[in-house]
Recover the amino acids of this structure.
C-alpha cells in the first residue's frame, strides 16, 4: 500500500437527503484522514453540505447560471467547464469520484486533464435516458472504475461494455431508523384506519419509475375494505401524477388509498404504520427504503425490479416473478392470510448487515484494490 496520501475530489449533484448522497456523507464522515485528502463538489448549495465535516473544502459548481454566466454560455464558454477546469488545476486530485451519472461534464474535463475517474452508479437503464448517447458512452469508456450499488446495477454496466466494475451494496445508518409505536398508532387513527385493518405502506417520489401510477390498479384488484394503501413521498407535479391522483380519488374500490405526501419528522412513524411494505418500482437499483422497512420488521412484497431480488430472502416476503399487478395482489393476500409465513426477526437481521461500518469497509477494499 502506498504510504503517501491520496487526494480525492468527490462530486455530488444536489447535496440533498437522497439515498446515494446520504451514502456519500457516511463515507466522508468515516474516511481515514491520515490516508486521504478530500474535497467535495456539489452542483447545488444543498442542505446536506452542512452535515459534512467542516474541514472538508467544498466547492459549488454552477448549475443555475446567473446573467453573466448565461451570456458567457451563449458566447460559447460553458461556466461549468470553466469551474471544473479551475478545480482540476487548483485541487490536484489523484482521482475524481463522481457519485452519480447525472453530471457528465465531469467526465469531459477529467479526460481533458487526464485525471483518473471513478463513477458510482446508483441508476439503472430506465434512468440512462436522461443522458445523451455520447455522454453515457464516455462515462462507461473513460471511468477507471465503475461501481454498481447492486448486482443488477453491475450487470447493466457489464451489458453497457464497462470493463472494471466493482460492487458496493448501498447501506444506511441503522441508528437513524427510529419509530414511536404510539405516534404510528396516532397517525393510523388520524387517517381513519381501524386497528384491526391491514396497512401496506409505499414510499418514494410519485414517479413512473417508482410505479406510482399502479396504485389504483392494486386497490381495484384488492377491493377489500379491511386493507389500506399509504403512499409516503414527495409529489412530482406532472400530468401522470394528476391523472393517477384523480383515479385514486374516484376509485370505487373498497380498499382505501392515502396519499400523505413528503414526510420528514414523521417519516419512520409513517413507515411503521404499515403491517407490510410494498415496492411497486419498475426499476430500482437497491432501494434504501426496503432496508428501512426490513429494519422495522415489515414483510415486503415487490416486483423483481432490481436489487430487491438480492435483498429479500426466505421469511422476509415475496418478490413476484413478473412486473404483474395480479401477482403482487396475490402475494399480498398470501401474506395477509398467513399462507406465506414471514419472520420479522429474519428481516431485522438481514437489514442490519447493510450498515455504515460494513459499507465503508467494502468501499475501502474497492479503493485500495484499484488505486
Amino acid at each position: 500500500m502506498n504510504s503517501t496520501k491520496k487526494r480525492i475530489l468527490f462530486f455530488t449533484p444536489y447535496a440533498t437527503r437522497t439515498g446515494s448522497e446520504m451514502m456519500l456523507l457516511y463515507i466522508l464522515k468515516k474516511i481515514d484522514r491520515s490516508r486521504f485528502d478530500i474535497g467535495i463538489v456539489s452542483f447545488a448549495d444543498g442542505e446536506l453540505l452542512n452535515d459534512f465535516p467542516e474541514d472538508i473544502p467544498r466547492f459549488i459548481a454552477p448549475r443555475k447560471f446567473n446573467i453573466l454566466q448565461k451570456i458567457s454560455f451563449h458566447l460559447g464558454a460553458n461556466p461549468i467547464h470553466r469551474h471544473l477546469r479551475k478545480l482540476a488545476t487548483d485541487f490536484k486530485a489523484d482521482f475524481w469520484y463522481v457519485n452519480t451519472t447525472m453530471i457528465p461534464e465531469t467526465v469531459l474535463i477529467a479526460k481533458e486533464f487526464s485525471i483518473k475517474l471513478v463513477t458510482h452508479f446508483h441508476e439503472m437503464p430506465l434512468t440512462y435516458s436522461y443522458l445523451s448517447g455520447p455522454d453515457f458512452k464516455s462515462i462507461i469508456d473513460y471511468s477507471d472504475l465503475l461501481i454498481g450499488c447492486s448486482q443488477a446495477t453491475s450487470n447493466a454496466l457489464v451489458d453497457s461494455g464497462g470493463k472494471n466494475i466493482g460492487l458496493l451494496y448501498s447501506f444506511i445508518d441503522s441508528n437513524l431508523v427510529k419509530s414511536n409505536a404510539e405516534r404510528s398508532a396516532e397517525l393510523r387513527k388520524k387517517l381513519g384506519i381501524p386497528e384491526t385493518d391491514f396497512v401496506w405502506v409505499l414510499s418514494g417520489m410519485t414517479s413512473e419509475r417508482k410505479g406510482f401510477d399502479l396504485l389504483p390498479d392494486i386497490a381495484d384488484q384488492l377491493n377489500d375494505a379491511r386493507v389500506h394503501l399509504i403512499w409516503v413521498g414527495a409529489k412530482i407535479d406532472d400530468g401522470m401524477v394528476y391523472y393517477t391522483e384523480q383515479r385514486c380519488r374516484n376509485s370505487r374500490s373498497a380498499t382505501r388509498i392515502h396519499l400523505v405526501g413528503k414526510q420528514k419528522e414523521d417519516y419512520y412513524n409513517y413507515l411503521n404504520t404499515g403491517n407490510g411494505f410494498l415496492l411497486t418500482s419498475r426499476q430500482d437499483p437497491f432501494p434504501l427504503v426496503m432496508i428501512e422497512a426490513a429494519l422495522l420488521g415489515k414483510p415486503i412484497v415487490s416486483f423483481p425490479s432490481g436489487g430487491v431480488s438480492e435483498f429479500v430472502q426466505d421469511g422476509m416476503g415475496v418478490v413476484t416473478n413478473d412486473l404483474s399487478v395480479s401477482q403482487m395482489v396475490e402475494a399480498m393476500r398470501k401474506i395477509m392470510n398467513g399462507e406465506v409465513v414471514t419472520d420479522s426477526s429474519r428481516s431485522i437481521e438481514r437489514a442490519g448487515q447493510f450498515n455504515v461500518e460494513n459499507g465503508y469497509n467494502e468501499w475501502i477494499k474497492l479503493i485500495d484494490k484499484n488505486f
Summary: The first strand starts at residue 6 and ends at 12. The chain has two domains: 6-171+355-370, 174-352. The two ends are 9 Å apart (CA to CA). The chain has a mean pLDDT of 95.
